[in-house]
Amino acid sequence: MNLAVTRLDLESFESLPMHTRRCVFWEVDPSSSRATENEIFGKFGSSFESEFDKEAWISGVLLEWGTCGQVAIDGQTGHYVGTAFYAPPGRVPRSGHFPTSPVSADAVLLTSIRTEPGFEEAAPILLDSIVTNLVRRGVRAVEAFGIVRTPTESADSSALSQPPSEHDEVAELGALESISNEMQVWADEAIVEITRAMHDSPQANLCTECIIDADFLKDSGFDLVASHPRFPRFRLELDEGLGWKHEVEHALEKLVVMAAMDLAGRERPASVPVGRRQG
Questions:
Q1: Model confidence at 17, in pLDDT bands (50, 70, 90)?
Q2: Among 89, 152, 155, 173, who pairs with 95 as Cys (CB 3.0-4.6 Å)?
Q3: How far apart are CA 253 and CA 26, in angstroms?
């Protein structure tokens, strides 16, 4: 599949997928009057939809901090099929409302990596682009809140990309059990407590589409730094994580240059003078 990844700018805002363009789950303070207004009057029953606020947030972060998003484009159709957003935690109001908050002061917060159905392979490519951008800017680490999805949420997210199967629920429960064993056991009391906390806090009406799967972060080399059965927080040290790729690329570039010089030297015709024989 031919995919191109580039940084997000305001000129490409109108080309973003509809949900990405409208959802301000991360960008608007859930305790603000604006969020309350959206909860009452929001379209499609969502309390996090405001295209105006999303564009304003992107504009502000671009102006004050720099690149805050990467987009994946299908080379065949030109459609935007993947998006990723990141920013200093101080620019992300939602970041302070998780049970595993706060984000470390030296880290940039990766808020979301979202792909359209059928383009899931764009997610790791988007992550690589983010890491490349942040390493070049001297950022020390990137952190992200993961979500351990319930079987129902996993089924809802996968139904868009593949037909349902009678084995889906078993597979999802198995994946959920695997994650829980490494983080924290899912006890009945914990599930009740999580449900109560979600309804009694600004996390109600959670936009699960805009939170990154915990298993994706684990598989991508992030380390668990704050355990939680629902919202674990992960961290990737850029100087110790994917930053090694840049060192390898630099070393390979040197090898290519040296090989080219050696080849050129071998192909250069000999210019040794031939003396006349004395008769």
A1: very high
A2: 89
A3: 39
